[in-house]
Design brief:
Largest sheet: 4 strands, mixed
Number of strands: 8
Helix content: 25-40%
CATH topology of the largest domain: 2,3-Dihydroxybiphenyl 1,2-Dioxygenase, domain 1
CATH superfamily of the largest domain: 2,3-Dihydroxybiphenyl 1,2-Dioxygenase, domain 1
Order of helices and strands: EHEEEEHEEEHHH
Shape: elongated
Strand content: 25-35%
Length: 154
């Protein structure tokens, strides 16, 4: 068995991989474009380190479309970062979905999740988790204050 296996996510774009990579790298802290491979003078693949996760964006043409079946989860330490990401994706041509999900202008699905949500969702008390999850089902962008109140039974 090989010991040097590297795993990388590849997202298929019709066009716009270079613009998307620059947008993502500018939006997500500790991210940067690391490589661009061109074919006939145009970007074919753009690789970026997205907060420690390597992602390749491929300009592959219109054959395949992004779907909600795959998404990028951005776990935010605080509500300010979650709000900033949500606003940036939506204001730049994205669309809101439900339960913390949205699509950016390239139709890539994102989950914008405050870290506090994950902590509550993994709590050992099923009643608290159920109340919080029920509250989440009515939201587009996750509202951690309302989720916390539901979790606490208030």
């Amino acid at each position: 068995m090989g010991t040097n296996i590297k795993v990388q996510t590849c997202l298929w774009f019709d066009t716009g991989a270079e613009v998307a990579a620059e947008f993502y790298a500018g939006l997500i802290k500790n991210s940067k474009v690391t490589e661009t491979i061109k074919q006939n003078g145009k970007p074919l693949t753009v690789t970026l380190n997205l907060a420690g996760h390597e992602v390749m964006l491929l300009n592959g043409g219109p054959m395949f479309k992004q779907t909600e079946a795959a998404s990028i989860m951005a776990i935010c330490d605080d509500n300010a970062d979650a709000d900033r990401l949500w606003k940036a994706f939506i204001e730049n041509g994205g669309t809101e979905s439900h339960c913390g999900w949205l699509k950016d202008r390239w139709n890539v699905s994102w989950q914008i999740v405050p870290a506090a949500f994950i902590k509550m969702a993994s709590d050992k008390n099923p009643e608290k988790v159920a109340r919080m999850m029920e509250a989440m089902m009515s939201m587009k962008q996750l509202d951690i204050v309302k989720l916390q109140k539901a979790f606490d039974g208030k």
